[in-house]
């Protein structure tokens, strides 16, 4: 079917490519004419403006926004004059689900249908397909099914979940194809938000674990002996120089913690076992933060997900003032001076 | 080759089965004659005592212990009179790596070789193969290679890690087959210990995330309005009845958090979406605890792994006294009475 | 000076009492005529309605609201028709500071001055005085100084902070009297919010510590030996029956962790060393939650404050679903059955 | 009475001074003759060797060790030849309680009595008195009572805990004087260990809270707008420049979180509100670590105490490798490059 795509960054462009390969017709727009030109070469229809993009689509039009979170509202506002009753706006970015609820509330009275799509897959999506979590009106989501079915990874060779057929029947559920209508407006981004919250937690679990492995040679370091340092009690228990690269690899094969994130860790460690190209300043996007806020509103304890988020804050120096106050208190009650680095 | 197996519980019996299928000769012993008989039917050689087991093996003998952690030392002590210089004792259970270091120190002067093997794979190992992390003398581990190669899953259809051949060469590394000599005595169980520590963290990340999804309908509950309860500020943001079973399924397909533990969660949710057969009293084994202790000795922060462990403690009521003290303090400073359940 | 008080619950009534004792004139209103009558007996002026309360005050009127968080906006709305340019509304409850910002924004154009006061002191405030954190226009706060000075504890016998005179001068700072103008609207409740966030963290630190003391006899319990339970490795290290009541008392005297919350713990433990009158279901108010949300917005890591909040959630059973999922995963990969309680 | 003191560092010297002021006779030894001389000027009896120290005491001798943790065993070994049946060795340092249990086990058969004393009070102890937690044989502890009574702060003006007299009677409990016989060998250091674990947690709660206060002006910073940074959603809610020094002061007076550690924070902030003399590299001593290990052995969840410890690890860069792995994973799945500092 036909789809308009606004925003041709890495994600947007690859979504278009996957749709084109799947036989869909894509009309594309980006502030960068070069980005448009590149996809036109790959058989997309180019548009020089939002207006032109809309005009080149047949009604009811489906327009997919793949723009930065902060630009979604403005893009919709600019788009709105050209849209008509029955047209569909899809936000495929990383919007806060609360904005989806608001936007749907604003667009519905005008007859514009709003669909929110949380999209996971990163730079691998073009090849592997995108896992999509979708929110909005059921009829509209069903109408867009050919788009989602093409973008999704499909069943592929990922094993069937045991007992699934008996429970849900052999058809009618798209989750096995890698996309899911999760509920009304915002539900898609809500589920994607939690997905990312979990992602932070899982990543942190591996990161901490590998750090413990790396520290397994702690007993080899000649310990500083002073009043400010706790000596290692049993240095003979920490004499291992473990090969993290090989351990990541072996865990991929038959262990309980095999996962795609572990696969990626194995790749990263193969490339540079010391990870020396990284400084360890870890960014966080909104989803991790929003997950915690949602959990707090729900009254659900999320020790692990919060810790994973805070670790990212700390990695960027955001714990420094708190740490200084700890040192200051230690100085006040014990006369402890900070050790030099 | 030939292997003696002591301990024919679920794990031990399945190890024997996989070895028999792989063409090895297994002599087996268990306190339960019935367990021995069952494997004898499957072509294993039965032994009625530890002595008989040893006598039925040719030198140098390789004896694999698959007994409860608390029984390893005693079993070795009972076995020792029958063993000779050059024989090999393999501990395939969940020993604390510190015990491995001690045992190797005790056995080496007698010429007995000690190998520690951390084994992951659970009830699925017979079919999928076991991921093994091995500690001990390099020559001994190499000698046992046929055993490990058979028990391991092998390369199978798990994708090759990009860049691996260039980095490590096409041969000589067993990690791609699913087993790895990690280092000297204790290294196998050290790596397995951290594996389980990570496992707790990853599991907790999913568990917390699914709990947040489940709470997405918090706005539908008619809130109690009293001084002891915080009202939900924006109930309209928590009106989703999410289908956790379908979400687990869709995440398995192309999402960043796809993993084997997620596969298992999908299976569990298919079977019983409310998980009502579980009370939520989560056991923990030693490895999770030892991981934290090792991290503390190394001075490595492990917020996530610790939280995951403590959540298990709490699930069994171990936070109750602390909680009572919180309520008691609230009563003292504010006259707050506990709300009834 | 003159003050109108709306809301004569425990806190409101005691504020009035302390003001009356300090020589101020209080006009009071509550939905319960009985609550009004009681204070009238103690020389307050009673009012039968909000209108009457306003009419009985001389201009510019100062009206202090001490009503539940959820009732503040409505009370202001009902009050508004009777207020005039220059009048002052004080919210002394536990409002979210974001509501203060909004309210000030709504009232200022009408010439009504809005002051937010975070009040700490609980049931002890009548006797000890109230620690107050104040937000609003500096002139208005200064105008109300006689009220704050009376409600506050004053300098009393709490030691002077060393170096303070040199740094801030001997006068002009009210913080030493126990009240502080923290900044513009919302600043009072922001500081009170963080105060409560810290309170949760400090309480949890004590609660966890006392639980570790209580567990010091863990080695005396005959351990269950099964595959689902980690045996205590060195039971001889956990043979202490510690007297928590006496320990709380001794820590009050010269230790680094002496505090008012410890004093209260000592009182609670004297009354009932086993705390058996409490079930351990710990309520949380909004401030703890809002503190975490503010920290997340600021990008400040708050591991401890979050953990303290989540522990309260867990104490009320809010981790149950996550725990069930953990048990479900363990069943799937290892066939582990939950232990019975 | 008479006491020998070995180790005249800050703590040891001040203990001697407080004892001398209390009318006790102190014989002192230190490797530094200068340290001995200084106390001799203050009427202590000097000793040039351990042997001399022992010889100058009358039997049964009481020798207090105030040496670094790592030097205790050696000092006892050197002392042992000169000690006789009935003599008492007191370890007043920060020993691991497990070492106390071992030492008592070694000394008891020789008739030497061993007492472990956890001492809190830091540089303030000389003036305020020391809070002491004592382990060992009841008779020996009673024999040393004059020493403990002098070192302790005594009742002073710290309020009596309500209900205490009815519960424990007016006499016979030393906890109100600031010292306590907690139980058999190791109990003193066990309680002191947990004291320090709590100390870490309480300190972290304040540190995090003050950091949130400091971040209250986050909305004033011109936000970077890029895909790697989450924009602050409501900058108008974070426009406060809070005066942390004044806030620390006001909380000291009547608030729920008043404490000695808050007093010290107020002092530190008066001295340097930006705490710019500190780098934020926070040391940790053994007690914090041992508390977590004890909690894990007991199966008691200690989210807050652990987080507080790990924050100290992180402050010294110990999370760096884990953070690098997080960045590496983000690069692998999303092509995310780290932001520059």
From TrEMBL, chains A, B, C, D:
Residues in 6-phosphogluconate dehydrogenase C-terminal domain copies: 188-340
Keyword Oxidoreductase in annotation: yes
GO biological process, alphabetically ordered: D-gluconate metabolic process; pentose-phosphate shunt
Pfam family, one: 6PGD
Family matches, as SMART domains: 6PGD
InterPro entries: 6-PGluconate_DH-like_C_sf, 6DGDH_YqeC, 6PGD_dom2, 6PGDH_C, 6PGDH_NADP-bd, NAD(P)-bd_dom_sf, Pgluconate_DH
Entry's Gene Ontology molecular function annotations: NADP binding; phosphogluconate dehydrogenase (decarboxylating) activity
Compositionally biased spans, kind Basic and acidic residues: 162-174
Transcription among keywords: no
Segments for region (Disordered): 155-176
UniProt keyword annotations, A-Z: Gluconate utilization, Oxidoreductase
SUPFAM superfamilies to which the protein is assigned, alphabetical: 6-phosphogluconate dehydrogenase C-terminal domain-like, NAD(P)-binding Rossmann-fold domains
Pathway assigned to this chain's UniProt record: Carbohydrate degradation; pentose phosphate pathway
Coiled-coil features, chain-numbered ranges: none
Entry's family note: Belongs to the 6-phosphogluconate dehydrogenase family.
Protein name: 6-phosphogluconate dehydrogenase
Organism: Bradyrhizobium centrolobii
């Amino acid at each position: 079917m036909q789809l308009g795509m606004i925003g041709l960054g890495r994600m947007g462009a690859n979504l278009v490519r996957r749709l084109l390969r799947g036989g869909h017709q894509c009309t594309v727009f980006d502030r960068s004419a070069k980005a448009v030109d590149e996809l036109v070469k790959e058989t997309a229809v180019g548009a020089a403006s939002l207006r032109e993009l809309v005009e080149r689509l047949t009604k009811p039009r489906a327009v997919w926004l793949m723009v930065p979170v902060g630009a979604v509202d403005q893009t919709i506002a600019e788009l709105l004059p050209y849209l008509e009753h029955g047209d569909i706006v899809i936000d495929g970015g990383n919007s806060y689900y609360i904005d989806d609820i608001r936007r749907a509330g604003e667009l519905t009275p005008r007859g514009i249908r709003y669909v929110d799509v949380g999209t996971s897959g990163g730079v691998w999506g073009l090849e592997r397909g995108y896992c999509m979590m979708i929110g909005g009106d059921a009829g509209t989501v069903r109408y867009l099914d050919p788009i989602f079915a093409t973008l999704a990874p499909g069943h592929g060779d990922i094993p069937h979940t045991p007992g699934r057929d008996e429970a849900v029947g052999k058809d009618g559920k798209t989750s096995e194809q890698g996309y899911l209508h999760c509920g009304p407006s915002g539900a898609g981004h809500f589920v994607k938000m939690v997905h990312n919250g979990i992602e932070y937690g899982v990543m942190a679990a591996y990161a901490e674990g590998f750090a413990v492995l790396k520290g397994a040679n702690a007993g080899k370091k000649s310990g500083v002996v002073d009043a400010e340092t706790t000596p290692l009690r049993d240095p003979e228990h920490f004499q291992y120089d473990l090969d993290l690269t090989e351990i990541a690899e072996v865990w991929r094969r038959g262990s309980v913690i095999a996962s795609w994130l572990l696969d990626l860790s194995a790749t990263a460690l193969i490339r540079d076992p010391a990870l020396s190209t990284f400084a360890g300043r870890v960014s966080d996007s909104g989803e991790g933060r929003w997950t915690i806020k949602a959990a707090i509103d729900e009254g659900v304890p999320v020790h692990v997900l919060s810790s994973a988020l805070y670790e990212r804050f700390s990695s960027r120096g955001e714990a420094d003032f708190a740490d200084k106050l700890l040192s200051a208190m230690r100085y006040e009650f014990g006369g402890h001076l900070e050790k030099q680095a």
